[in-house]
Amino acid sequence: MRINEHYAKLPASYLFPEIGRRVRAYQAAHPDAKVIRLGIGDVTEPLAPAIVEAMHAAVSEMGERATFKGYGPEQGYDFLIDAIREHDYQARGVDIAGDEIFVSDGSKCDSGNIQEIFAVAARVAVTDPVYPVYVDSNVMAGRTPMLIEGNEANGFQPEPPKEPVDVVYLCSPNNPTGTVATRTQLEKWVAWAKANDTVILFDAAYEGYISDPSLPHSIYEIPGAKDCAIELRSFSKRAGFTGVRCAFMVVPKTVTGLDPSGKRVSLNSLWARRHTTKFNGASYVVQRGAAAAYSPAGLQQTNAQIAFYMENARLIREGLTAAGFTIFGGVHAPYVWLRTAGGATSWDFFDQLLDKAQVVGTPGAGFGPAGEGYFRLSAFNSRANIEEALGRIRRVFG
Ligand code: PLP
């Protein structure tokens, strides 16, 4: 059997297993150390009561002959799609049709799978540093994405590249830098995409953390974006669904690509074909839980969780600044991005922080070459752990 040789071009392991390996080795050598993990971006607050209640009710329905459900619609149940259309889009002046929304079991899969509908020869650009799945999933398929560098000079929100590309991945609010694209920046991307016949893949997994109401939450708030952008959303960070699993992708019917004969094909029909062939729908119980995140109680409870994490982010920004660090992000995203102390490489800083403060973060280099020399701390933790971690960091570096 001949293997997919492109896998050999991937880094040896995904970022988080390597972090886990180093933490386990440290913990084995220092069994009494109380290590605080501000590394992996996983939520820590339990599911909101309104969501738990809806999921319990859905489980009960599944246990009754009269209300039991087998396979559901592959694109998602109308009760969830209607809630998404109303709360995420109509409320912000955007009209998205029900059949333009594809409910799934996570944005990791969506962001990794979407490249299947691009030509193998498609030129792909990815901002750097960013969530590693965009690059790795394209490398697996035999493409070598072009990296567009984010840096301090451009506030980690790079401009469109000079060269035309077929597809560009944008992530705002950004993982890992915690920075957010302004309306003007998104307008530039949309104008550039339309001028170059480029498709934008806009990952808005952290949209719920935007605290300034004037900032766009969806790329479709920018006129023209429905002709050139696909948007990814997830309930993971918005509603604490990292372990429950639910997300969706918006593929407007007006976004098109060229077939080999030069004919325009709707990406919506391609994705519908792909999605219904390889996916049998997210679980009914999970979709009932996701829909409950939009109920008045669900919104109030999940917004309170986000406010709790964002207060953590504020404390991290304040504590790191007091310890002398140069920081970015953390205002519209649960991540704070810092320049490493004394110009250390990001993995050296990882080891230093673990060794001296017993705090785990994520090395910037794991998110791409432009992340070297930077480090990500996440606001997902208890208040007590955040305060303890900051106290240690201030003692060691302040
Ligand atoms: N997109 C970004 C930018 C993320 O940071 C993450 C998770 O950390 C995901 C997507 C994955 O989300 P999900 O839990 O829906 O798979």
Summarize the structure.
With 398 residues, the chain is of the alpha/beta class.
Summary keywords:
Aspartate Aminotransferase, domain 1, 38% helix, binds pyridoxal-5'-phosphate, alpha/beta, 398 residues
Reading side by side through the largest sheet, how are the strands ordered? Answer: 2-8-7-6-5-3-4
Q: Which topology of the largest domain does CATH recognise?
A: Aspartate Aminotransferase, domain 2
Which range best describes the helical content: under 10%, 10-25%, 25-40%, 40-55%, 55-70% or over 70%? 25-40%
Global morphology: globular
The CA-CA distance between the termini, in Å, is 57 Å
Task: Explain what you see.
The protein has 2 domains: 5-46 and 297-397, Aspartate Aminotransferase, domain 1 (Alpha-Beta Complex), CATH 3.90.1150; 49-294, 3-Layer(aba) Sandwich (Aspartate Aminotransferase, domain 2), CATH 3.40.640. The chain starts with 14 loop residues before the first helix and ends with a helix. The protein has helices at residues 15-29, 49-62, 78-89, 107-113, 133-140, 183-196, 235-239, 267-278, 284-292, 296-322, 346-357, 383-397, and strands spanning 36-37, 101-104, 124-128, 146-149, 167-171, 199-203, 229-234, 247-250, 256-258, 264-266, 327-329, 335-339, 359-360, 362-363, 374-378. It is globular. Helices cover 38% and strands 15% of the residues. The chain is built from 12 helices and 15 strands. With 398 residues, the protein is an alpha/beta fold. The strands form 4 sheets. The chain has a 7-stranded mixed β-sheet, with helices on both faces. A 4-stranded antiparallel β-sheet has the order 11-12-15-14. A two-stranded parallel ribbon has the order 1-13. Helix 2 packs antiparallel against helix 9 (284-292).
